[in-house]
Automatic annotation (TrEMBL), chain A:
Annotated membrane topology: Multi-pass membrane protein
Chief place of localization: membrane
Protein name stated in the entry: ABC transporter permease subunit
Residues that span the membrane, as ranges: 33-54, 103-127, 147-173, 262-288
Top-level taxonomy: Bacteria, Pseudomonadati, Pseudomonadota, Alphaproteobacteria, Hyphomicrobiales
Family of the protein in this entry: Belongs to the binding-protein-dependent transport system permease family.
Localisation: Cell membrane
Keywords: Cell membrane, Membrane, Peptide transport, Protein transport, Transmembrane, Transmembrane helix, Transport
TrEMBL record, chain B:
Transmembrane feature ranges: 6-27, 102-123, 138-159, 171-192, 198-218, 256-282, 302-328
Bilayer disposition of the protein: Multi-pass membrane protein
The protein's name in its UniProt record: ABC transporter permease subunit
SUPFAM superfamilies tied to this protein: MetI-like
Family the UniProt entry places it in: Belongs to the binding-protein-dependent transport system permease family.
Localization annotation: Cell membrane
Length: 302, 334
């Protein structure tokens, strides 16, 4: 009796390991994806250890060091490796703390959009009928606006700030998850294993979230990485427009907005925050491409 | 085809009604009193408050207000701006050509570079060129374009001094707008150097706005070409001894273009979102900058009308793309 139970549990464990190994095989074949993953891991460590790594406090102003160029330029100082901004704050330290904000924004926004999108999408795809029609029309309405414009107006209504920016971005990213989930659920719903589970007496809730959903996850994971990078980009854009995180928060987009007037005098105040955004978004998109190759059997290289 | 068109319209009209409800609701969702907001948040007597409220129609039931707003829109009346007191529709038509000109140049830039790059990458799959093109495309796709614009200004306007920093044309030139498109108007005006000035103002915004569509089109063209190139009919064409140019240019490209056209159509929404950032950076007097300025001035009627018109444009373009898609690819009509 106990032996049977052990084999019953051990077997899925083996297939899961094999699946993970297969996944890693395809993922690691894509060199870009591995590089992206490494860069992302480094960013994560930097963000977590910001208070240890950063040479200065993010909002400490040094009156004797205003617009100091990076260390390798004439007039640069070793204390400020990437130079200082117009009020004498160390750019490197601000970038390091900024990583916390960007990754936090990405995680929170993606989680809200993913969870909300999955719940709504599963309901739409499973229930069909008028529930489905109403949900999909509402999603069409959200998608009819350019996402950044809708987020901008939402933030204007809710009031500028990082939290409201994150809510707005999550709302505009969510329809993509709803559509993907609904399509996947509709494709899976008529398959035999679902019918079998229904005949065996599984309730609606169990059918929706335990039977069907796990088989729809691949496209959602890929979309989640895309949303992660989109969330960081949009939050930075809102910050740049003055509607996201407010100064003196060391958020990268907000830093760019503050630096705008100095672009022709001090290129470094503009260059580094944007470079940080680009590297982060690029790393996540590289991982996303790798995930898509590894998870989507249609695109797998034969 | 007619049925297909009506099917699309049957979905579009409820969506548009929904869009109008959303645009209409924003101002009512605002925390606080719309009358106080609209009149500049000054302290006012209850009588004056009631008078303004009645003047703006806020004392009526919300459904009546909404129907009144829709009735106005159907007659072409989107209301007036609180700040400039001008009719919103007039402002929109004055500014839209600037955005249209910029978007048009940007999408041409993206198509002219993106499609050949994608085809080339697909033909030379796995080569150094393929990897370079696709690597560059991914960088473009990940680009924070507001930063990209600032970098280009630093380099081309600051260091090289080749291009102006902002605006549509140098202040030296003045001529009445005929078409609203600066490139055409400057030619019509016949003033020496006017066209050159307009073109040099347009270059950097075009590159900035075209970067993400360029990357998306290149990636989509490559994957569509790869899919088509592995089809049997392409192998047949090759086996028949047709020249590689003919096989790729005629047989493969025509079918590969179907998803690419959809992608190009979808870029319209991306462009209008990008215009918000691009126009802000380059002080380009189009509807993107108009919307951002209105958000900052709390000019709610403009935000409301602008949202509605921009959504209508996107929905219209998507409809056109759907119809085009139905024309090229009869399979999806049913």
């Amino acid at each position: 009796m106990s032996n049977d139970a052990v084999t019953a549990i051990a077997e899925p464990q083996v297939t899961r390991n094999r699946r993970a190994a297969e996944f890693w095989y395809y993922f690691s074949e894509n060199k870009g994806a591995v590089i992206g993953l490494v860069v992302f891991a480094i960013l994560l460590v930097v963000a977590l250890l910001a208070s240890v790594i950063a040479p200065h406090a993010p909002s400490a102003q040094y009156r004797d060091a205003i617009l100091v160029p990076p260390v390798w330029l004439e007039g640069g100082r070793a204390a400020y490796p990437l130079g200082t901004d117009a009020v004498g704050r160390d750019i490197l330290s601000r970038l390091i703390y900024g990583a916390q904000y960007s990754l936090f924004i990405g995680v929170v926004v993606t989680t809200i959009a993913l969870v909300g999108g999955i719940i709504i999408g599963v309901i739409a795809g499973y229930a069909r009928g008028w529930v489905d029609t109403v949900i999909m029309r509402v999603m069409d309405i959200i998608l009819a606006f350019p996402s950044l414009l809708l987020a901008l107006v939402l933030v204007a209504v809710l009031g500028p700030g990082l939290l409201n920016a994150m809510i707005a971005i999550a709302l505009v990213l969510q329809p993509h998850f709803v559509r993907l989930t609904r399509a996947a659920v509709m494709a899976e719903k008529s398959k035999d294993y679902v019918t079998a589970a229904r005949v065996a007496g599984a309730g609606h809730f169990r059918l929706m979230f335990k039977t069907i959903l796990p088989n729809c996850m691949a496209p959602l994971i890929v979309q989640a990485t895309l949303s992660f990078s989109n969330a960081i980009l949009d939050a930075a854009a809102l910050g740049f427009l003055g509607m996201g995180a407010q100064p003196p928060t060391p958020e990268w987009g907000t830093m760019l907005a503050e630096a705008r007037e100095f672009i022709l005098r001090a290129w470094w105040v503009v260059t580094f925050p944007g470079l940080a955004i680009l590297v982060t978004v690029l790393a996540i998109n590289l991982v996303g491409d790798g995930l898509r190759d590894a998870l989507d059997p249609k695109l797998k290289r034969s | 085809m007619v049925r297909f068109l009506f099917g699309r319209l049957a979905v579009l009209i409820p969506t548009f009604i929904g869009v109008s409800i959303i645009a209409f609701s924003f101002i009512r969702l605002l925390p606080g009193d719309p009358v106080a907001l609209l009149s500049g948040e000054r302290v006012m007597s209850p009588e004056r408050h009631a008078a303004i409220s009645a003047q703006l129609g806020f004392d009526r039931p919300i459904v009546v207000q909404y129907l009144d707003y829709i009735w106005g829109i159907l007659r072409g009346d989107f209301g007036t701006s609180i700040v400039t007191k001008q009719p919103i529709l007039d402002q929109f038509f004055a500014l839209f050509p600037a955005t249209l000109e910029l978007s048009f140049c940007a999408i041409i830039f993206a198509i002219v570079l993106g499609i050949p790059a994608g085809i080339f990458a697909a033909i030379k799959r796995g080569s150094f060129f393929d990897q370079t093109i696709m690597g560059t495309a991914l960088v473009g796709y990940s680009m924070p374009i507001f930063w990209w614009g600032l970098l280009l200004i630093i380099f081309f306007s600051g260091i090289l001094q080749w291009t102006p920093v902002s605006g549509r044309i140098s202040l030296l030139y003045f001529f009445p707008p005929v078409t609203g498109f600066m490139l055409i108007d400057s030619l019509i005006s016949g003033q020496a150097g006017a066209f050159k000035s307009a073109a040099s103002h347009l270059i950097l915004p075009t590159i900035v706005l075209g970067t993400i569509p360029l990357a998306v089109i290149a990636r989509q063209t490559r994957s569509a070409m790869l899919e088509v190139l592995s089809e049997d009919y392409v192998r047949t064409a090759r086996a028949k001894g047709l020249s590689p140019f003919r096989v790729i240019g005629i047989h493969a490209l025509r079918n590969a273009m179907i998803p690419v056209i959809t992608t190009i159509g979808l870029q319209v929404g991306v462009m209008l979102a990008g215009a918000i950032l691009t126009e802000t950076i380059f002080s380009w007097p189009g509807i993107g900058k108009w919307m951002v300025d209105s958000v900052f001035r709390r000019d709610y009627p403009v935000i409301q009308g602008g949202l509605l018109m921009i959504a209508a444009i996107i929905m219209f373009v998507n409809l056109i793309v759907d119809l085009l898609y139905g024309l090229i690819n009869p399979r999806i009509r049913h």
